[in-house]
Amino acid sequence: MENLLVTQTRVIGALVLRETRTTFGNSQLGYFWAIASPALGIAVLVGIFSMVGRVPPYGSSLALFFATGFLQFELYKKLSSSLMGVFDSTKGLLAYPLVTETDVVFARAALIIATYIFIMVIFFGTLIAVGLAEFPRHGDQVLMSIGATALLGTGAGMTNAVILRLWPTWKQIEGILNRPLFFISGIFYVPSHFPPSIKDILWWNPVLHCVEWIREGYYPHYQSTLLSKPYLFTVALILVLFGLGAERLYRKKRK
Amino acid sequence: MIEFQNVSKTYYLKGIEKVILDDVSFKFPKGRNVAILGHNGAGKSTMMRLLAGAELPDAGRIRRHVKVSWPLGFSGGFNGQMTGMENIRFVARMYGEDTERVIEFVQEFSELGESLTLPIQTYSSGMKARLAFGVSMAIDFRYYLIDEVTAVGDARFKRKCDEVFKQKLKRSNIVMISHSMGSIRQLCDMGCVLDKGKLYFHDDVEDAIAHHTKNQNA
């Protein structure tokens, strides 16, 4: 029998290609929209802020400021919501003796993360090319912040998936709980400028730390008074471990 | 080698407890074709799903150290939005097979022609079954799981299936569920009877059929 690791890598590879095919639909336009929709989201933010005549909350480029926040937020949101439905959409796959549920989770997460890294490269690249942004000052910090966001999103998605399996109403509840996330994650303001009473509350939102981190990495002098990398990693790891553990525990109950 | 080690499986449905397997240990002997017999609802299909790993036992272990197929004719793993060709590619990649070879084989075998470039959701159930059967024949498994051989296509196509299958059986083995004692006698040389959570093993398929018939008439 061949090496388990080789088999699993191959299976996940095949699943990623399959996911690519099913996520992006039947045409090349699917790939286009995957990139265009976050870009449009940022464009809308930039448009609204320019119209009301606001200066960028930080730096000289509205587009760059929003992009750093929005893309991190979107990466998190996409992972946490797409992975939630993973067990439902892949029931049929489990009849293949080679495939386990975690393979499907990893494949889907890998595709989303790769897609967003691609989007970020395109987006920041374009901003740099047209002179709306500089190159990131601390590339390593930017990469690590994206990695942390990916981990957090994957953990949240897996946790959502196991809760959803036990309690189908979770889909609605999660949607309601996540609605304010866009406003409390520091996407269109600098959280450090807030008074301590508000900062103390915002601090508990792990996605805010993802946004603060990428800005510290991207801008030469952005200094966050809130950022705690240990807190972010703790939350992310707890979610990942909880998701994996609960999946193992309830694996036998699946129908 | 496939082995059941102290495997238990119980279903709970609306407070009703249904024992499918109760502490079953069993080693599938090398080179034998095994029939699984049992009355309706005894859990034969569940046992097949356990064999395939689509379901997990409550207790005990199932060891599969050989390449086991998915339940034959099964097309639930196919994605409706993807074309026949893309589905074939996915399975071939997953099993590390030469994609082009598998496609060629399935093209030749399934006679689906142009339809292979259409999404599966446009297929009739017969076309799907032909595709699924073709794909499982294109890959060399050590064990084929057959859950009630379903009639695939017309008589001519059925003959073609039988022929390919006969070729396969020279090097592979099967585990099979069927209500047709005819096809069991034809393909299997030993049998197990699943009854009230226990698995009774018979070295001669005729003994297994006799046991099963006695259970049916009891």
TrEMBL record, chain A:
This is ABC transporter. Belongs to the ABC-2 integral membrane protein family. One of its GO terms (biological process) is polysaccharide transport. InterPro entries: ABC2_TM (IPR013525), ABC_2_transport (IPR000412). Coiled coil: none annotated. It is found in: Cell membrane. It is a multi-pass membrane protein. Pfam families: ABC2_membrane. The chain crosses the membrane at residues 31-52, 58-76, 109-130, 142-164, 176-194, 231-250. One of its GO terms (cellular component) is ATP-binding cassette (ABC) transporter complex. Residues 12-218 form the ABC-2 type transporter transmembrane domain. GO terms for molecular function: ABC-type transporter activity. The keyword Cell membrane applies. Keywords: Cell membrane, Membrane, Polysaccharide transport, Sugar transport, Transmembrane, Transmembrane helix, Transport.
UniProtKB/TrEMBL annotation, chain B:
One of its GO terms (cellular component) is membrane. InterPro entries: AAA+_ATPase, ABC_transporter-like_ATP-bd, ABC_transporter-like_CS, ABC_transpr_TagH-like, Bact_Polysacc_Export_ATP-bd, P-loop_NTPase. Keywords: ATP-binding, Nucleotide-binding, Transport. Residues 2-218 form the ABC transporter domain. It comes from the Bacteria. The keyword Nucleotide-binding applies. The keyword ATP-binding applies. Pfam families: ABC_tran (PF00005). PROSITE patterns: ABC_TRANSPORTER_1, ABC_TRANSPORTER_2. GO terms for molecular function: ABC-type transporter activity; ATP binding; ATP hydrolysis activity. Belongs to the ABC transporter superfamily. This is ABC transporter ATP-binding protein. It comes from Pseudovibrio exalbescens. The lineage of its organism: Bacteria, Pseudomonadati, Pseudomonadota, Alphaproteobacteria, Hyphomicrobiales.
